[in-house]
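TL;DR need C-alpha coordinates for one chain.
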Amino acid sequence: KGFEDLIAVCAGLPDVRLFIIGEGPLRGLLEQRIAALGAGGTVQLVGSLPHEEVFAFLRRAHLFVLNSRYEGLPHIVLEAMAAGIPVVATDAGGTRELVQDRYNGLLVPPGDTARLERAMREALDDQALRERLIRNAAATLAAFTPAAQVEQTESLLMEAAGRAPEDAASRRVPVLFLSTARFMTQPDATFLKKWSGLQRFFGATVLSVHEGKGFLRTTAAGARWLLLPAGRHRFAAYVLYLFCAWWQCVRGALLGQYDAIIAQSPFQAVGPALALLPWRLLRVQKRPKLIIEIH
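>> reply
TL;DR here they are.
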Protein backbone atom coordinates (compact mmCIF):
# COMPACT_ATOMS: atom_id res chain seq x y z
CA LYS A 1 0.00 0.00 0.00
CA GLY A 2 3.01 2.33 -0.16
CA PHE A 3 2.82 3.34 3.51
CA GLU A 4 6.56 3.96 3.80
CA ASP A 5 6.50 6.60 1.06
CA LEU A 6 3.28 8.12 2.41
CA ILE A 7 4.83 8.45 5.86
CA ALA A 8 7.86 10.22 4.35
CA VAL A 9 5.62 12.63 2.41
CA CYS A 10 3.50 13.48 5.46
CA ALA A 11 6.60 13.96 7.60
CA GLY A 12 7.48 16.89 5.32
CA LEU A 13 4.02 18.49 5.30
CA PRO A 14 3.42 21.04 8.06
CA ASP A 15 0.16 20.88 10.01
CA VAL A 16 -0.70 17.42 8.64
CA ARG A 17 -1.47 14.34 10.72
CA LEU A 18 -1.57 10.90 9.12
CA PHE A 19 -3.68 8.09 10.59
CA ILE A 20 -3.03 4.58 9.25
CA ILE A 21 -5.80 2.16 10.17
CA GLY A 22 -5.28 -1.60 10.11
CA GLU A 23 -2.93 -4.26 11.38
CA GLY A 24 -0.42 -6.53 9.71
CA PRO A 25 3.12 -7.90 9.55
CA LEU A 26 4.57 -4.56 8.34
CA ARG A 27 3.78 -2.73 11.58
CA GLY A 28 7.31 -3.10 12.97
CA LEU A 29 8.84 -1.81 9.73
CA LEU A 30 6.51 1.19 9.69
CA GLU A 31 7.30 1.98 13.34
CA GLN A 32 11.00 2.01 12.42
CA ARG A 33 10.29 4.31 9.48
CA ILE A 34 8.34 6.72 11.67
CA ALA A 35 11.12 6.78 14.28
CA ALA A 36 13.85 7.29 11.65
CA LEU A 37 12.00 10.31 10.23
CA GLY A 38 11.16 11.72 13.65
CA ALA A 39 7.51 11.64 12.63
CA GLY A 40 6.04 10.31 15.87
CA GLY A 41 3.98 13.45 16.31
CA THR A 42 2.72 13.35 12.72
CA VAL A 43 1.93 9.69 12.04
CA GLN A 44 -0.23 7.41 14.17
CA LEU A 45 -0.67 3.68 13.57
CA VAL A 46 -4.22 3.21 14.80
CA GLY A 47 -4.44 -0.58 14.45
CA SER A 48 -7.53 -2.61 13.60
CA LEU A 49 -10.95 -1.05 14.09
CA PRO A 50 -14.53 -2.22 13.50
CA HIS A 51 -15.96 -1.05 10.19
CA GLU A 52 -18.22 1.51 11.86
CA GLU A 53 -15.25 3.18 13.57
CA VAL A 54 -13.27 3.22 10.33
CA PHE A 55 -16.14 5.09 8.65
CA ALA A 56 -16.29 7.50 11.60
CA PHE A 57 -12.56 8.19 11.12
CA LEU A 58 -13.18 8.91 7.44
CA ARG A 59 -15.95 11.39 8.21
CA ARG A 60 -13.61 13.35 10.51
CA ALA A 61 -10.75 13.41 8.00
CA HIS A 62 -9.95 16.21 5.56
CA LEU A 63 -8.37 13.93 2.95
CA PHE A 64 -8.12 10.23 2.07
CA VAL A 65 -4.93 8.97 0.40
CA LEU A 66 -4.48 5.57 -1.29
CA ASN A 67 -0.81 5.15 -2.23
CA SER A 68 -1.02 1.58 -3.56
CA ARG A 69 1.31 0.11 -6.14
CA TYR A 70 -1.26 -2.57 -7.01
CA GLU A 71 -5.03 -2.63 -6.58
CA GLY A 72 -8.12 -4.49 -7.67
CA LEU A 73 -11.24 -2.40 -7.25
CA PRO A 74 -10.55 -0.51 -3.98
CA HIS A 75 -13.82 -0.40 -2.04
CA ILE A 76 -12.23 1.89 0.54
CA VAL A 77 -12.18 4.64 -2.13
CA LEU A 78 -15.96 4.31 -2.46
CA GLU A 79 -16.27 4.51 1.33
CA ALA A 80 -14.15 7.67 1.39
CA MET A 81 -16.37 9.19 -1.29
CA ALA A 82 -19.47 8.21 0.70
CA ALA A 83 -17.94 9.87 3.78
CA GLY A 84 -17.69 13.13 1.85
CA ILE A 85 -13.91 13.63 1.79
CA PRO A 86 -11.69 14.22 -1.26
CA VAL A 87 -9.58 11.33 -2.55
CA VAL A 88 -5.96 11.33 -3.69
CA ALA A 89 -4.94 7.96 -5.14
CA THR A 90 -2.28 6.34 -7.29
CA ASP A 91 -3.26 5.29 -10.80
CA ALA A 92 -2.85 1.60 -9.96
CA GLY A 93 -5.01 -1.34 -11.03
CA GLY A 94 -8.72 -0.70 -10.98
CA THR A 95 -8.54 2.60 -9.10
CA ARG A 96 -9.10 4.56 -12.32
CA GLU A 97 -12.47 2.80 -12.66
CA LEU A 98 -13.53 4.81 -9.61
CA VAL A 99 -11.40 7.96 -9.73
CA GLN A 100 -11.32 10.27 -12.75
CA ASP A 101 -8.45 12.70 -12.32
CA ARG A 102 -9.59 16.19 -11.31
CA TYR A 103 -13.26 15.20 -11.69
CA ASN A 104 -13.95 13.22 -8.50
CA GLY A 105 -10.43 12.83 -7.14
CA LEU A 106 -6.75 13.31 -7.92
CA LEU A 107 -4.68 10.54 -9.55
CA VAL A 108 -0.88 10.36 -9.42
CA PRO A 109 1.56 7.82 -10.89
CA PRO A 110 2.50 4.99 -8.49
CA GLY A 111 5.87 5.56 -6.82
CA ASP A 112 6.04 9.28 -7.69
CA THR A 113 6.30 10.82 -4.20
CA ALA A 114 6.84 14.35 -5.55
CA ARG A 115 3.55 14.21 -7.50
CA LEU A 116 1.83 12.65 -4.49
CA GLU A 117 2.97 15.50 -2.25
CA ARG A 118 1.83 18.15 -4.74
CA ALA A 119 -1.59 16.50 -5.09
CA MET A 120 -2.04 16.31 -1.32
CA ARG A 121 -1.06 19.96 -0.88
CA GLU A 122 -3.46 21.02 -3.63
CA ALA A 123 -6.36 19.02 -2.23
CA LEU A 124 -5.80 20.43 1.24
CA ASP A 125 -5.25 24.04 0.22
CA ASP A 126 -7.77 24.58 -2.61
CA GLN A 127 -11.24 24.75 -1.08
CA ALA A 128 -13.02 25.14 -4.44
CA LEU A 129 -11.26 22.05 -5.77
CA ARG A 130 -12.15 20.07 -2.65
CA GLU A 131 -15.83 20.98 -2.96
CA ARG A 132 -15.92 20.04 -6.64
CA LEU A 133 -14.25 16.67 -6.06
CA ILE A 134 -16.64 15.85 -3.20
CA ARG A 135 -19.70 16.88 -5.22
CA ASN A 136 -18.71 14.79 -8.25
CA ALA A 137 -17.74 11.82 -6.09
CA ALA A 138 -21.26 11.76 -4.67
CA ALA A 139 -22.60 11.43 -8.22
CA THR A 140 -20.11 8.64 -8.99
CA LEU A 141 -21.41 6.50 -6.12
CA ALA A 142 -24.73 5.96 -7.92
CA ALA A 143 -23.01 3.59 -10.38
CA PHE A 144 -21.54 1.47 -7.59
CA THR A 145 -24.54 0.67 -5.42
CA PRO A 146 -24.80 -2.90 -4.07
CA ALA A 147 -27.76 -3.52 -6.40
CA ALA A 148 -25.78 -2.40 -9.46
CA GLN A 149 -22.77 -4.52 -8.50
CA VAL A 150 -24.92 -7.61 -7.92
CA GLU A 151 -26.62 -7.09 -11.29
CA GLN A 152 -23.28 -6.80 -13.11
CA THR A 153 -21.91 -9.89 -11.34
CA GLU A 154 -25.05 -11.87 -12.19
CA SER A 155 -24.83 -10.87 -15.85
CA LEU A 156 -21.17 -11.90 -16.06
CA LEU A 157 -21.81 -15.26 -14.38
CA MET A 158 -24.81 -15.99 -16.60
CA GLU A 159 -22.68 -15.24 -19.66
CA ALA A 160 -19.86 -17.46 -18.41
CA ALA A 161 -22.30 -20.28 -17.72
CA GLY A 162 -23.97 -19.87 -21.12
CA ARG A 163 -27.34 -19.10 -19.59
CA ALA A 164 -29.86 -16.33 -20.07
CA PRO A 165 -30.38 -13.90 -17.15
CA GLU A 166 -33.98 -15.04 -16.78
CA ASP A 167 -32.67 -18.51 -15.86
CA ALA A 168 -31.20 -17.14 -12.60
CA ALA A 169 -34.22 -18.10 -10.55
CA SER A 170 -34.26 -21.68 -11.82
CA ARG A 171 -30.80 -22.72 -10.59
CA ARG A 172 -28.07 -20.86 -8.80
CA VAL A 173 -24.77 -20.87 -10.68
CA PRO A 174 -22.12 -22.86 -8.80
CA VAL A 175 -19.00 -20.70 -8.63
CA LEU A 176 -15.54 -20.99 -7.08
CA PHE A 177 -14.09 -17.66 -5.93
CA LEU A 178 -10.31 -17.36 -5.47
CA SER A 179 -9.46 -14.49 -3.16
CA THR A 180 -6.73 -13.45 -0.74
CA ALA A 181 -8.91 -10.96 1.14
CA ARG A 182 -8.52 -11.99 4.77
CA PHE A 183 -11.59 -13.58 6.30
CA MET A 184 -12.49 -12.08 9.68
CA THR A 185 -13.88 -14.37 12.36
CA GLN A 186 -16.51 -11.70 13.06
CA PRO A 187 -17.51 -10.42 9.59
CA ASP A 188 -18.80 -6.85 9.44
CA ALA A 189 -22.20 -5.79 8.12
CA THR A 190 -20.85 -4.79 4.67
CA PHE A 191 -19.28 -8.22 4.17
CA LEU A 192 -22.48 -10.03 5.16
CA LYS A 193 -24.67 -7.80 2.99
CA LYS A 194 -22.47 -8.34 -0.06
CA TRP A 195 -22.36 -12.11 0.11
CA SER A 196 -25.95 -12.58 1.23
CA GLY A 197 -27.14 -10.53 -1.75
CA LEU A 198 -25.05 -12.49 -4.23
CA GLN A 199 -26.26 -15.85 -2.91
CA ARG A 200 -29.62 -15.26 -4.59
CA PHE A 201 -27.86 -15.90 -7.90
CA PHE A 202 -25.11 -18.42 -7.25
CA GLY A 203 -23.84 -20.99 -4.81
CA ALA A 204 -20.36 -19.84 -3.87
CA THR A 205 -17.33 -21.69 -2.60
CA VAL A 206 -14.58 -19.24 -1.61
CA LEU A 207 -10.91 -20.12 -1.22
CA SER A 208 -9.29 -17.42 0.89
CA VAL A 209 -7.03 -16.86 3.91
CA HIS A 210 -7.53 -16.14 7.60
CA GLU A 211 -5.41 -14.85 10.46
CA GLY A 212 -5.49 -18.06 12.50
CA LYS A 213 -3.39 -21.20 12.25
CA GLY A 214 -4.19 -24.29 10.21
CA PHE A 215 -6.90 -24.96 7.65
CA LEU A 216 -10.48 -23.93 8.35
CA ARG A 217 -13.81 -24.78 6.73
CA THR A 218 -16.80 -22.64 7.61
CA THR A 219 -19.97 -21.08 6.22
CA ALA A 220 -20.87 -17.40 6.27
CA ALA A 221 -23.54 -15.38 4.48
CA GLY A 222 -24.64 -18.48 2.58
CA ALA A 223 -21.20 -19.20 1.09
CA ARG A 224 -18.85 -22.09 1.85
CA TRP A 225 -15.38 -20.86 2.88
CA LEU A 226 -12.13 -22.83 2.58
CA LEU A 227 -9.56 -20.84 4.54
CA LEU A 228 -5.78 -21.16 4.54
CA PRO A 229 -3.43 -19.65 7.16
CA ALA A 230 -2.13 -16.27 5.94
CA GLY A 231 1.32 -16.84 7.45
CA ARG A 232 4.16 -14.36 7.79
CA HIS A 233 6.25 -15.55 4.83
CA ARG A 234 4.56 -14.31 1.68
CA PHE A 235 6.30 -16.67 -0.75
CA ALA A 236 5.48 -19.77 1.29
CA ALA A 237 1.89 -18.58 1.73
CA TYR A 238 1.54 -18.01 -2.02
CA VAL A 239 2.94 -21.47 -2.88
CA LEU A 240 0.46 -23.06 -0.47
CA TYR A 241 -2.38 -21.00 -1.95
CA LEU A 242 -1.30 -21.89 -5.50
CA PHE A 243 -1.33 -25.62 -4.74
CA CYS A 244 -4.69 -25.51 -2.97
CA ALA A 245 -6.25 -23.44 -5.75
CA TRP A 246 -4.91 -25.89 -8.35
CA TRP A 247 -6.26 -28.90 -6.45
CA GLN A 248 -9.66 -27.34 -5.78
CA CYS A 249 -10.02 -26.51 -9.49
CA VAL A 250 -8.92 -29.97 -10.65
CA ARG A 251 -11.31 -31.62 -8.22
CA GLY A 252 -14.13 -29.26 -9.16
CA ALA A 253 -13.62 -29.87 -12.89
CA LEU A 254 -13.54 -33.66 -12.47
CA LEU A 255 -16.71 -33.67 -10.36
CA GLY A 256 -18.50 -30.97 -12.35
CA GLN A 257 -18.86 -28.81 -9.22
CA TYR A 258 -18.46 -25.34 -10.79
CA ASP A 259 -19.76 -23.53 -13.86
CA ALA A 260 -17.29 -20.70 -13.33
CA ILE A 261 -14.07 -19.96 -11.45
CA ILE A 262 -13.41 -16.31 -10.59
CA ALA A 263 -9.86 -15.22 -9.75
CA GLN A 264 -9.40 -11.91 -7.94
CA SER A 265 -6.20 -11.19 -9.88
CA PRO A 266 -3.81 -12.82 -12.38
CA PHE A 267 -1.78 -14.10 -9.40
CA GLN A 268 -4.79 -16.08 -8.16
CA ALA A 269 -5.48 -17.30 -11.72
CA VAL A 270 -2.24 -19.31 -12.07
CA GLY A 271 -3.59 -22.33 -10.17
CA PRO A 272 -6.88 -22.68 -12.10
CA ALA A 273 -5.16 -21.96 -15.44
CA LEU A 274 -2.79 -24.89 -14.83
CA ALA A 275 -5.61 -27.05 -13.51
CA LEU A 276 -7.83 -26.51 -16.56
CA LEU A 277 -5.01 -26.84 -19.12
CA PRO A 278 -5.64 -30.58 -19.84
CA TRP A 279 -9.34 -29.89 -20.50
CA ARG A 280 -8.38 -27.08 -22.86
CA LEU A 281 -5.77 -29.15 -24.72
CA LEU A 282 -8.26 -31.98 -25.15
CA ARG A 283 -10.86 -29.44 -26.33
CA VAL A 284 -13.35 -30.54 -23.69
CA GLN A 285 -16.25 -28.12 -23.93
CA LYS A 286 -17.85 -28.92 -20.58
CA ARG A 287 -15.41 -27.30 -18.22
CA PRO A 288 -15.59 -24.36 -15.81
CA LYS A 289 -15.15 -20.94 -17.38
CA LEU A 290 -12.22 -19.02 -15.87
CA ILE A 291 -12.91 -15.34 -15.17
CA ILE A 292 -9.95 -13.15 -14.16
CA GLU A 293 -10.12 -9.63 -12.74
CA ILE A 294 -7.58 -7.64 -14.75
CA HIS A 295 -7.13 -3.91 -14.16
